[in-house]
Amino acid sequence: MLITVSDVIEYLFCPRFIFFMHCLNIPQREERYYKVLRGRELHESREKVNTSYVRKRLRCVRKEVAVYMTSHRYRIKGEVDEVLFLDDGTAAPMDYKYAEYNDVVHRTHKYQLALYGLLIMEHFGAPVNRGFICYTRSDHHVEEVIFRRKDYHAALEIVNEILRTVQYGYYPEGTKQKARCVDCTYRNICD
After folding, report:
1. Any alpha helices (H) in the chain, and if so which ranges?
2. Neighbours of 165 (CB within 10 A)
3. Could you report the per-residue pLDDT of 24-71, keeping only the tens digit for each?
4. Torsion of CA 58, 59, 65, 68, to 10 degrees
5. Which of 51, 77, 78, 112 is the most exposed place for a label (fewest CB within 10 A)?
6. What is the pTM for the complete model shown?
């Protein structure tokens, strides 16, 4: 079984998302949410606009856009917005967020990038020591995320937690941040 990198984001938002989606097969119906729709539009437009533009400030010499990768080794799959190939021989994932930058990179974004980094290393054979997030609602502010070995291990442990939840069908604890429950698509069936 392979899980998506998006599953990891959902799990970090609230572990019960995975239970409802994968154990009970109840879809999110997230298409109703404005930010989700705007985010999808952003990703679609990124695949068509400025595809040859490279960010020289990031020391990028080449990029590939909308790269879908799978890994049976890591049991993940996902599509990264851009794979940047840097002048030092390393590569880096670049992800665009329809969000504002508030002086912090959320752990959902950090581990999303780390998992893309693992996929890039496996598929392109290039070391990945960092990733980038572009916050489009903050004038396209780009934030760099440095990866350490422990970040990759933590990301893979999250993948294992998700796989155990799906495999054994246990009902995980919900998020401790109850503000997330207010607008949750599963709020009517979650206790």
Report:
1. 5-13, 16-18, 34-46, 107-124, 149-168
2. 20
3. 999 877 655 666 667 667 767 766 777 667 788 899 999 999 999 999
4. -90
5. 51
6. 0.88
AA identity, residue 44: E
Half-sphere exposure of 9 (CA within 13 A, CB side): 13
* 3-state SS, residue 4: strand
Provide the β-strand partners of residue 3: 76
Query: What end-to-end distance do the CA atoms of the chain give, in Å?
Result: 28
Cα 122 to Cα 69, 78, 98, 116, 151: the distances in Å are: 9, 13, 28, 10, 16
The dihedrals phi and psi of 3, each to the nearest 5 degrees, come to -110, 160
Rounded Cα distance between 134 and 138, Å, is 9
CA distances from 78 to 66, 88, 123, 144, 180 (A): 10, 25, 12, 20, 25
Q: Distance (Å, rounded) from C-alpha 92 to C-alpha 64?
A: 11
What whole-number distance in Å separates Cα of residue 62 and Cα of residue 94? 12
Angstrom distance (rounded) from CA 19 to CA 25: 8
Reference 119, options 73, 158, 85; nearest CA is 73
